[in-house]
Amino acid sequence: MAGMIRKSLDEPEETRPFEDGKGRVDLVNLEAGVVGRAVFEPGWQWSKHVKPIVQTDSCQAPHVGYVLSGRIKVVMDDGEENEFTAGDYLSIPAGHDAWVIGNEPCVVLDWQGYADYAKRHG
């Protein structure tokens, strides 16, 4: 049986900043995969602040997570849309854009989609 593991997102193993200082994703690596906490600042939008980094038409990372604070709107490539707010569980397939609603940062814990999120390639 494995022992306990303690890691802190306040002392991440990796941090990936978004364009224009509009936030970041902090990451810790676990045997089961990467867990991340994203801070999306007011005015952040995936297509403006992450797309230039990853160079895909839409976000291709599927997300499974929990919204700690703030609000975010997600629009799928097929037009389906939803808003998520503090206290919401979220499951979002690949193929979407997203942006912060309001003047409060949106903070999201994600245990599926951040392994390659906002990662520069090449």
From TrEMBL:
Residues 7-22 have a biased composition (Basic and acidic residues). It comes from the Bacteria. CDD domains: cupin_DUF861. Gene3D superfamilies: Jelly Rolls. Residues 1-22 are annotated as: Disordered. Residues 63-110 form the Cupin type-2 domain. This is Cupin. The lineage of its organism: Bacteria, Bacillati, Actinomycetota, Actinomycetes, Micrococcales.
